[in-house]
Specification:
Blueprint lengths: L1 H15 L3 H20 L10 H13 L4 H20 L26 H8 L7 H16 L3 H5 L6 E2 L4 E5 L5 E5 L2 H12 L1 H6 L18 H14 L8 H14 L4 H8 L4 H22 L4
Antiparallel strand pairs: 1-2, 2-3
Helix pairs in contact: 1-2, 2-4, 6-8, 6-11, 11-13, 12-13
């Protein structure tokens, strides 16, 4: 069955354009499933029945995998068996009628506007690295892009005259996101001053570079963000994704429509964006309870 797995993964790369992390997750989930089939002496994929899938999910539950992980493995199996039908290898899908376990939606944490501003104001603007970091924080909060998108952002995809950035997200999907006045101002300053110093005359396609003139790593930016959060007196766990969550929630709190926020975040499914409406709703309830005379 391993050749079928490799064919499927090649299909995901060539036809679906999925990211390396997603491909790795699919490989891991299916390798675990095929190992389970071997334990049950099931040598042919066509011999797999609905009851075998149910037994596999039960084994995962007994191994104390959380519901989210089990749902992910079930989704992987659904996609895999649909591929086998599409290729004419199977006639029916043993996973199709299985219901996914219900996963409780975990509401994302967000920062207040004051907390965001305190972090953004921490970099030392007397140094090239500080100017770079200020521009990175401004653009991250202004666009809600993922940190992986930020560190891989080519300079030519930032249009300061028109005020937008072209982002390639998951699955190489393209989206255009407005920059906003403050982000434009700081990116412009960084390009005119700090980047020239950091590049040391070396050519790099990337907008944000380190002191060696090379692309900044995700770990490097995360480390800097934690440092600035501590300097700002914030003792909660701060991640780049927290700025993305805050970007979405702050827009919705101020009346942005859900579809526009979805487009800016690069979410394929609007239900992914809808979780932020729950966040803003919870915050409004807290405000109401605190300040309303009969709250």
């Amino acid at each position: 069955m391993e050749p079928l797995l490799e064919s499927f993964l090649h299909y995901l790369i060539a036809e679906k354009g999925l990211s390396k992390n997603t491909i790795d997750a699919y490989r891991h989930g299916l390798t675990r499933f095929l190992a389970y089939l071997r334990e049950r002496n099931l040598q042919e994929i066509r011999d797999v029945a609905k009851v075998d899938i149910q037994s596999f999910l039960l084994v995962l539950r007994k191994k104390h995998l959380n519901t989210r992980s089990i749902v992910r493995d079930l989704t992987i199996l659904r996609t895999f068996f649909r591929f086998l039908i599409q290729e004419g290898i199977l006639q029916s899908n043993p996973v199709e009628d299985l219901e996914s376990p219900k996963v409780a939606k975990k509401l994302p944490e967000i920062l207040t506007i004051n907390e965001i501003e305190r972090i953004i104001e921490q970099p030392n603007l007397q140094t090239p690295l500080g100017t770079r970091d200020r521009a990175m924080l401004e653009i991250l909060y202004a666009t809600g892009m993922r940190v992986s998108e930020l560190i891989q952002l080519p300079t030519h995809q930032v249009n300061l005259e028109a005020g937008y950035v072209l982002v390639y997200g998951k699955g190489s999907k393209e989206r255009i996101v407005p920059l906003g006045g403050e982000a434009m101002r700081w990116v412009d300053l960084y390009l005119r001053t700090a980047r020239r110093v950091l590049s040391k005359e070396k050519e790099s396609p990337f907008l944000f570079i380190n002191r060696s003139g090379k692309r900044l790593t995700r770990q490097g930016f995360w480390k800097n963000l934690r440092h600035y959060a501590q300097k700002a007196g914030l003792h909660k766990r701060i991640t780049p994704h927290l700025l993305r969550h805050s970007f979405a929630s702050h827009l919705l709190e101020r009346g942005a429509d859900l579809r526009s926020v979805q487009m800016m975040l690069g979410h394929v499914d609007i239900s992914t964006t809808q979780i932020y409406t729950h966040v803003t709703g919870e915050r409004l309830k807290k405000v109401h309870k605190r300040y309303h005379p009969r709250g």
